[in-house]
Amino acid sequence: MNRLKGFDLLALGFMTFALFLGAGNIIFPPSAGMASGEFIWQAALGFLLTGVGLPLLTVVAL
Fold this sequence. Notes:
By secondary structure, the protein is an all-alpha fold. The chain has three helices and no strands.
């Protein structure tokens, strides 16, 4: 297994930061909650699966 160079490690750090704190993860949840109306729990579950579950799987895959 090859060791990561400094530049590769920095790029991986920026990618992970952007994955969790991208603009979509800050703007989308409130608008999804307002648009869901009475289906708030379904919207929350969908966001948790796609906004938390998929990034977590990505970090595990790395």
